[in-house]
Structures
1.
Amino acid sequence: MSLNELNAISPIDGRYRNKVASLAPYFSEEALIKYRVQVEIEYFIALCEIPLPQLYGFDNAKFTALREIYSNFDTKDAEAIKEIEKTTNHDVKAVEYFIKNAFDTLGLSSFKEFIHFGLTSQDINNTAIPLSIKEAMNSVYVPQYFTVLAKLEELSKEWATIPMLANPVNGTVVNAPKMRTVAPPAVSRALPEEATPPAIAFFKSGSCLRSSMMRVLMKIP
């Protein structure tokens, strides 16, 4: 069955697919597999750089070839790992075997038993997933956030002379960048106590989110 809007499990991969396609390189299953490969490779390189005694003779010039395993990762590679998983019945173990096969191809068979050395599957997942979030934030979310902010700032100037109802509680009306007061209508008092121009509110909420995310993401390798 080929994926289309009617057989997708959720609307994200159905009717809204065209809105989130830019996130596929970060949050699809193929992307997760690729990030797992990246973490495994970088961990092995880190062991070589210590150096772990058993890896003392590893040629550091091979690091570029190792990094190409994940930098050149594509759908065909992901399918190969899924094929291995049919035997292992374990997603991270399938990644490990895929990399071992790559080591054989590169003539590095004598070092392949140090792939995934001392690690658990969750060590890989708990690094791969935050890394995908960090890169999605940097490459997709933050640039789009500033695009929306710029548009709001543009519209605030374009609509500067148009009154905008902002707080029916005390009758404050935003006429960006000016404010004027009108008689308050009878409505629920469960509304905000302050009126804030939309662009400023968006900027404040986005700044808080960005600051919170950056505090978390800065801890990710």
2.
Amino acid sequence: MPEELAEGERRHGAVAGGRAVDPPVVDAHEGSVRGEPDVALDGIGPILNGLKVGGEAVLGLVLIGPTMRHDLGDSPGNGLAAHLPSLPQTPDRDRGLAAGAWQDDRVQRLVLFDLDGTLTDAAPGIVSSLLYALDEMGIEHPDDATIATFLGPPLKDTFGGYFGMDEAGIDAAIAHYRVRYNDVGLFENEVYPGIPDLLARLTGAGFTLATSTSKPTVSATRILEHFSLAQHFTFIGGASLDSERNSKAEVIAHTLDELNALGTDTSAGSITMVGDRQHDVLGAAQFGIPAIGVLWGYGSRAELEGAGAVATADDVGHLGRLLS
């Protein structure tokens, strides 16, 4: 058993190389790029304290403290989530985020990034490992269009929801998936062009960056370190091996709690989520956090806008402009 897997049983956080990381965990879900190497970030500034369309403010950002987050359910209708503001349902894909919102330099600028389909194209390794697991379970492969829908959501949702497996079957399928993914599939992966420059410019401009990915933390950490991206992130937040932290909302809550523990005042600043699937948008909405959808990953414009993304980015340069 790889050392990372054994360490995945630990329940406490750790700090490695001066950067905080989660208790190690191993993998959950992971396409092709239409990005640009050149990222224009002229005067990186405001994010989402107020969104204006036609001169009228349409969004007020609400942040909640860590003790309140644990009361949120997995859907926007549960618990405190029912009282959070709804996001615009028909965003203009080209509108930017309000200039002038960051007039106080003391206000923290925090961006939560999804990983697969947002920072890296992990589809080859995910698909190959998923098909390996199905072969081991004696299950016929779905068609390519169906397989594409498995990129993004947690593996537990795929094996349980689509294939109808019970808990024992889900556990067995995930174990087979990890046999291949941990040693091979993890690195059948590449960074989207322009992402390293974007992350460097954001951190250089004073943004705090963290991940909130459905991939277990140890896999996310290994990928970010392999591609020399980990240094840009204050915290690498991901799912847990024991499925106690599985949904996007649970991962976001965990990430915000850990950032608070590290001294990041999430209640005093503005936050945005950046991701490629509806799960990123809907999970962020449970905390009143607006989301930008990216179109180079695994989701479509219709999916992201239908979930309530406040904007969609056609390429990495466009994302940079939305964050400026």
3.
Amino acid sequence: MRINTCTCIAEEPSPNGGGDITGPVDVYHLNADLAPLPQEHLRVVLLDTKRHLLGVVTVYVGTVNTCLVRAAEVFRPALMHNAPQLIVVHNHPSGDPQPSRQDLELTKHLIGAAELLNVELLAHVVIGRVRWISIRETTTGIFKPHKLMQEVA
């Protein structure tokens, strides 16, 4: 993710829990409101072991092209709300969802942190103005193959 400065937002998960997340298109629909925003926003989608939605938490709001991301802040909502799985989603205000080098580095860093915390990072979805990209689906060598996670790709 393009990183520099931002604000950490402390929120409770949204109360619309219960829906199933079966793939990245569900993540996009749940977070489509990010597409027109003028600043980068990073959210975590919290899931239980059956991939039922527990909530969505905005972790950071950055600038037009940057957001400093600390792994501890990304995983805090999952730990606080006992969510064993999560998906990271952020927007690109430029409208182009192509992951940057920083997005890929952040994803690798978060995968390592997730392993240490025993939380599954299922995907990282980047939302642009009219389309979205799942880093799991489009970038090889970052996420380990996992049969149970294929449909969430």
4.
Amino acid sequence: MRAWLVNISLVDGWFPATLFSITAVLAAILLGIAIWEMVGGSRGGGKRAIAVVACPMVIAVIAGIVGLVITWLLSDVFVVFGVFAVLHLAGLPFRLANAVAVFCSGSFNYVMNRNVTFKSSSNYARSIAMFVAMYCWNLLFSNLMMAWIPGLLGWPTMAVKIVTMGMQAVWGFLLCRYVIFK
């Protein structure tokens, strides 16, 4: 049972297709109700019909934003930034907080990328060596940027961490997809 649950993909397969289908059917029903209200000349007039159309659209946008936030919180971003933010705000120097955050992120990311995202069966020793090398580079890069950029541009350390995380996400995905877990 547990293996089945772990293999559910949020971006491919039956789970997102089912959620999309349910959402599409509910949207069609709500749109049908709105059209019925407008054509049928309801007692509330045009204002009620507009509310019936606008309300589901606002709810859909809010649901989409909530879904994106939940996905973000469950991802590597939450692990690396969450650990960094908590440790840094607790008073640890940014280099030490960043090292712990990168270690936690790397451990989580390796397991998820190898087993879930890329479903890799490549050489274990090769993939872990390359992954560790990439994370050592990420640690060095982010520490250098957090040491230089705040003094150079006056940015807060947290903002620099977010920017470096975005850069690392791009080259990390490309390296994992095409080199490390191929």
